[in-house]
Amino acid sequence: MVQLVTRGIKISVETTYEGSFYRDYKIQYAFGYTVTIENQSKDIVQLNSRHWDIFDALNNVEIVTGEGVIGKTPIIQPGESHTYSSGCLLSSPFGAMKGFYSMLNFSTNSIFKVTIPTFKLSAPFAIN
């Protein structure tokens, strides 16, 4: 698990290897990840959007941006957390992801970025 705190918001990420399959004559490696967003600040915050940089071992980079996470823009009270799971496909058995969330602080009515720490994606069979 990797963890990072930005402005009182703690991001924790756990990953899993889900398997591989062929799509359009190319092998794809499926990974899952679970993110917990914990509000350790004194302010109510809302996650508005996400930005992901997804890398694989073949130097492919995919950038994913969008509103919320899995269709939600959760409001997180002080001392509470929001957990969700998602996944991605890579063209290699190794890769990494990093990014940030844009969040609204209700006390100051300002938007701020919360860093998602870099986390590795690796298929267990490929580790020596």
TrEMBL record:
- Looking at the record, the residues that make up the ApaG domain are 3-128
- Which InterPro entries does UniProt cross-reference here? ApaG_domain, ApaG_sf
BP-aspect Gene Ontology terms: error-free translesion synthesis
Q: Enumerate the Pfam families for this protein.
A: DUF525
The cross-references to PANTHER family, in alphabetical order and at most eight, read: F-BOX ONLY PROTEIN 3, POLYMERASE DELTA-INTERACTING PROTEIN 2
Name-wise, this protein is Co2+/Mg2+ efflux protein ApaG
Its source organism is Aestuariibaculum suncheonense
